[in-house]
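# step 3/5: fold
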Amino acid sequence: MALEFETKLIENIAEFRRLESEALLSKFDKSELLDHLREKADTNTKIFSINNYIIEQKIRPMLANLNNTEDVDALFELSQKLYSFNANLDNGLAMEIHKGIIAWAREHKDTDRLLRSLYSIGFIYQQILTLMVARKNHLFFYKEALDAFKEGASYKEIYFEIENKETRRYINRCLGNVYVVYNASKTTSETFSLSEITKLFFENVDAAIGFWNDEKVRAHDPDFPWDAFIGNAHQNVLVWEQALRDRLLPSDIENQKLTERVCESFAFLDENSKSLAISQFWTSSRTENSRRFNRYFRGFISHEELIDDLRESIKTMNYDDYSTDGLFSAFNVPFILLGQLKFSESIKQEQLECETKAILARTIKYFRNIPSGVNRHDSFFVQALSNCAKAVGTFLSAEEYLEILLKFTSFTHLPTYVHTLNVRSLTRVLANYFMKHEPQLFLGICDTKSADDVISKKQEIFELIDMASLCHDIGKVTYLDTVSLHSRRLYDFEFDIIKEHARVETMLEKQNENEIIACVSDVVSGHHKWYDSSRGYISSFDNLSSKYRFIVDMVSISDSIDAATDTVGRSYAQGLSLEQVIKEIKEGSGTRYSPIIAKALDNKTLLSQIQYCVGEGRENAYYEAYLDILGQKEGNVT
């Protein structure tokens, strides 16, 4: 039974996502582009309003007053259309529906409906966990995913009493996903040490394999893909070993046991029938990469042969393949090679840097050409972005490093790209004003000790400010699609994810005292922190003692002005007038915003320059960004 509002809701969500992620390939002139963007924003604003109404007035009342299995099943079918293994329209709304069904199923002791929603919500939690796994010491939904799968897996104790075959399949899925959650959290778990989580991982792998090998269980459901389940478990073991190859366990005995276990898993996967069986779980590239490293670890090939094998793999890649297999090949394999090149004794530093730049250039080209329909929060994609950050930070200069990260962020979403350009323009306007009127505010930056020093190093300081303001949102790259494509009000957990973009260490690591990296790091960490440090995020960042506090303050105000006044590319909120925004800044003077900057906004010349930035300047920025993404110069566009 389809719900009366279902078709409209699904159509709205799909259209919103299509419009927000569309690749602008048409050759627009400036006025045509702006008209197109405003029309798109207007359409999506209407969709936003309709979907909020459906959620508030239709879905939530149903969830609060469930009284029959027909409504429960209809809502479950809707949730599967919103988010499942093959669908990704709205994970948050799907999660809300599953929570309602789980509460109803527990109350009515409905095991079948409980298990299918436990697995489904656990899967959503797990995907968000995978998405955010690059975040150091911060795992979203680790406990929630684990609890859901563990509860589902516990029903194996009454496996033969459960009549519904599909329900029994959900039990097996939950069994397998318990160790998958441990796998996803192995390098960032706050709860357990590496040794403890390794023990838990293998205990659950063994428990699952033992159940799937039980003759009575297999006889009860002879048509279940038991070898595929077991193959999935063994492949997880191989992935575990790969991820830990540079972080070996502290005990040699434990290392030996782990190596032996991995070799056993590899031997299992070498059996052709079982190797074919796991194809539904893993990409061929990922499986081949497991085999490649296992050959090396078992001593069948040398380290140099491993590197040559990886190089050959990159040479033969299909850079037009944007399937999951293609994403893994084009993103992860190159960074695996970069990691191995560092340990090669035969490669000189100059050759290493040259090869690194060539590999990164290919990856960035592939990234820029990603079609709009590709799942950009595929776990391979997200982890590759983090790998990219670490790789370029090791081999390239600070300027090159930040340029790469900007490209990864900017080319994902046109309004975000324009926002970075506008924040740079607004911050430069403020910097020019204060450089002229109060240069002492920049003391300490670029080793300046007096106002005269500041003026003499004006260009150097401005280059630093430009880079920091451009990079203030680089952290958005690992979740942009997750929060920018929802055609409804965001949930609290989504705001929590948004806040993570200021957790700088994921994409930017301070490797030395380079002033560019240091300044960018403080701006990324502090541009959402209140001036008086009383509120905002990231809470751990001390903006009061930052050497670059005034730059952080300028970027913070520039960020607020641009975000609040954009009526061209933002669909989720009505833009405010500049006068309204200035009023809010003045009301927050001394608490949220710098009183020095708030007072300066009384200056008519400064205000007119800001007005240009949020008016004609923004329109120019949209067109320039559009041309940049197309890779064209204005003279080539008709």
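# step 4/5: annotate
The chain has 29 helices and four strands.
# step 5/5: archive (pending)
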